[in-house]
Specification:
Blueprint (H helix, E strand, L loop, with lengths): L2 H23 L1 H8 L5 H33 L1 H20 L4 H4 L2 H30 L6 H5 L1 H23 L2 H6 L4 H17 L6 H9 L8 H5 L2 H21 L1 H9 L5 H29 L2 H23 L4 H19 L2 H6 L7 H17 L2 H10 L4 H20 L10 H6 L7
Length: about 425
């Protein structure tokens, strides 16, 4: 295993997603600073709407930075994305409140989320293609699973910091200024990762492509349209997975505190413990996919999410304590692992090198904007309308659509990603 490449790509991804998720996990504290009117659900709806705005920037980021990664290299794109993320975290950290400048603070939040969306739209593809291309065939599922290990680690760091602040600061202090601390931490950490990523080596597949294909043939919409079927496949297979993922991760803490009635501290601890186990499962599932293929895991997720979401979320809504909430959350995250552990490698294996980053970035970002970014808002809208269970059926329906794709798509495990890899064995090529 090329551990330097795996660690280098992952640690930057961790900071990217720490900054991305910390907005959601601390929203329960800063919502009142920017939206003082209305009840708690209304305030959370406003912050969730701004959270969704970042997702709608992701297609633009996927296009611009995916194109950049295909033309300038995976390493250059990884460095650029973490720079943008550092700037956006710093903006949130210094955003003025409603009491001082009215809704200008909310405008600053929107600008910061737009920058985050631009960055993450490119980060996912740059990280997915880098981890996949930097690893030998037969280990790609295992290596690429560290993308969600690092994503989850970033969220865990955010939750751990939240737990520490909850136990060292009063509620009034957290609501007043304590919520700014994680954004300062994120900005500083991203600046450190910028220097770490500069020492990464470019992948063999990209170097090979750069020598043989002229720049104007790499990372273009024209080249992507030559692979329309694969692009549509990425959107469809992402649909159910992204909705389920955000339901059991970023929305879980709000659901447990706002609907189940658990204390915020208990809900945060449940999320932290469940996500830690979830993080540890990713490499195991990724390694399993290297042995049995990608499709079996995706199909297992599709069936489990379609059938299990309604009873699981219903039970979570009536849970009484920590143990019961943790058990149910773990069941949901085990199901989601069938998607998260391998979705990056599956998408990267669908496209040739000259359009791989763009092919992963743009369709994935579109699917996330439509389904992942709106998951929290849709959930809160159903709750505010008095039909909260409607959201559970929505998640199940999205999973059902993706399941059809999983059942009909081809297996990608043995595809060669470079000419050198193709020459070493007689396997299908995606070069």
């Amino acid at each position: 295993m090329p551990w330097k490449a795996v660690i280098g790509g992952s640690i930057g991804n961790m900071v990217e997603w720490y900054d991305w998720f910390v907005y959601s996990s601390f929203a329960i504290y800063f919502a009142g600073s920017f939206f003082p009117e209305g009840d708690d659900t209304a305030k959370l709806l406003n912050t969730a709407a701004i959270f969704a705005v970042g997702f709608f920037m992701r297609p633009l980021g996927g296009w611009l930075l995916g194109r950049y990664a295909d033309r300038k290299g995976r390493k250059s794109a990884l460095t650029l994305t973490v720079t943008l993320m550092s700037a956006s975290a710093l903006l949130i950290a210094v955003a003025p409140t409603y009491d001082s400048v009215g809704y200008i603070g909310a405008v600053v939040l929107v600008v910061a989320r737009l920058l985050q969306g631009l960055s993450v739209g490119g980060e996912y593809a740059a990280s997915a293609t880098y981890l996949t291309e930097a690893t030998p065939r037969g280990r790609r599922g295992f290596a690429s699973s560290f993308q969600y290990v690092s994503m989850t680690a970033g969220q865990l760091v955010g939750l751990l910091l939240q737990i520490i602040l909850q136990n060292t600061m009063s509620q009034e202090a957290l609501d007043s200024y304590g919520w700014r601390v994680p954004f300062v931490v994120g900005a500083v950490a991203a600046a450190v990762v910028f220097y770490l990523r500069r020492s990464l080596l470019e992948t063999e597949a990209y170097d090979e492509e750069e020598r043989e294909v002229t720049p104007h043939d790499r990372g273009t919409i024209k080249e992507l349209l030559a692979h329309k079927k694969e692009a549509l496949l990425v959107i469809a297979l992402t649909m159910g997975g992204t909705v389920a993922y955000y339901t059991y991760t970023t929305y879980l803490t709000k659901y447990l505190s706002n609907s189940a009635g658990l204390a915020k501290e208990t809900a945060t601890l449940v999320s932290f413990c469940a996500l830690f186990v979830f993080m540890c499962l990713q490499p195991l599932a990724g390694r399993l996919s290297d042995r049995i293929g990608r499709r079996p895991l995706l199909i297992t997720f599709g069936i489990g999410s379609m059938v299990g979401t309604v009873p699981l979320m219903t039970a979570l809504g009536g849970v009484q304590g920590f143990a019961g909430a943790l058990t149910l959350a773990l069941i949901g995250l085990v199901i989601v692992t069938g998607y998260t552990s391998i979705n990056a490698v599956v998408k990267a294996e669908l496209f040739p090198t000259n359009v791989r980053a763009l092919g992963v970035a743009l369709p994935y970002a579109i699917a996330n904007a439509l389904f992942g970014g709106t998951a929290q808002y849709v959930a809160l809208w159903f709750k505010d309308s008095g039909i909260e269970s409607g959201f559970f059926w929505y998640v199940s329906g999205c999973a059902a659509v993706s399941l059809v794709v999983y059942l009909t798509m081809r297996e990608t495990r043995d595809v060669a990603l470079s000419r050198t890899e193709q020459a070493s064995a007689e396997v299908p090529a995606r070069v």
